[in-house]
Amino acid sequence: MAKLLNRLLLKRLTLLQAFILLCVLTLIGVLAVITMEFAWAEYMKKRFGETDWVLPSLVAAVLLTVAAGIVAMAILFYKWKLQRPLALLKQASEHISANNLGFRISYDSGDEMGELVAAFENMRSQLERNIMTLWRSVEERKQLNAIFAHDLRTPLSVLKGYAEFLATYLPEKKLSEEKVLELVHTMSQHIVRLESYAEAMSSIQKLEDVPVHRRPIEMIPLTAMLNECAEQIIGQSGKRLVSSMEEANTAINLNVDTYLVMQVFENLMANAIRYAAAQVNVRYVVQEGSFTITVTDDGPGFPDETLHKAVLPFYRGEMWDSSEHRGLGLYICKVLCDKHEGSLQVGNQPQGGGSVTAHFGFGVDK
Predict the structure, then answer these.
(1) Cα Rg for the chain, rounded, in angstroms?
(2) How far apart are CA 338 and CA 360, in angstroms?
(3) pLDDT digits (tens, 9 = 90+) for 72-110
(4) Intra-chain end-to-end CA distance of the chain, in Å
(5) What angle do CA 330, 333, 336 make, to 5 degrees?
(6) Taking the domains of the chain in order of start, what are their residue ranges?
(7) Which residues contact 245 (CB under 8 A, 6 or more apart)?
(8) Which end of the chain is more exposed for a tag (fewer CB within 10 A), N or C?
(9) What class is the 215-365 domain?
(10) Residues 12-69: pLDDT tens digits?
(11) Which ranges does the record mark as transmembrane (predicted)?
């Protein structure tokens, strides 16, 4: 019966429609059986005459037929409409209780149970994404704390050594005034370095709480604003800026956080100008639901051992002793791109020079 109903595409009916249909079919079947039972009772009367057992038997048969019809309808309705989706939901709940989100559930039906299974699958996928995001955040936080602790060891070790040195020799007056001033100056530099690290950690903590406010803006005004910002940044360096974009996508409205995009772009430009020999190139592309900014330079590019470390906080390559560059630019870009449902990619151009691409997810209004 169930196979016949499926062939008739009755599986697409809602629960109420299916229940009414089964009631009608059950009623037709029960009436047919009762008609046969009445015919049987009439036959028995003709054969045996008026007896006391025919009428009670007929009533009992009718009641059993009605009861059997109701039970059969309930069993068929359960097997047809409820059994499989309930089993899927129970199995999915067991997976989630076991912290296993790497599964999929689907139920090909247009009724309310199909919608419930689809909603459960959406909830599972969203929960999986949230847990993966939380896991990445925890791992990045561990990595950040480890890097921060590592960078603090050097200035703390230097300060400790100088403090012990002064405590040992200063009371004995074995140090000249010039030597003491030199040590104090060095210690002061390392204290400034510690303050700089503390300020950097505070700014990183604030990045986690930065909200994303998307506003629709056309591509041409957005790129014009970015190019104006790039001209101001590169104007002081004496280097040249070359900007380009895909003309086919200029009529698209981008739902992006302009301030966040600008902040990422400024960091990319500052990083490219630092290493460029004479020219910085900027390319804007819109494809597959993302706004992409690629900034390249004609400098030496990223060393192979630096490519996978460039986005780490406080990483400066060969510039570990620089007090002005704290190695946070690309890390900030990565965090902000992730918050904007995008990503950051670091690489080198085939002809040489570094290349950094920022992706920003957005909604498109054509």
Answers:
(1) 37
(2) 8
(3) 999 988 888 888 889 999 998 888 888 888 888 888 877
(4) 50
(5) 155
(6) 2-100, 143-207, 215-365
(7) 219, 223, 283, 284, 285
(8) C
(9) alpha beta
(10) 778 888 888 889 989 999 999 999 988 888 888 777 776 777 788 888 988 999 999 9
(11) 12-34, 54-78
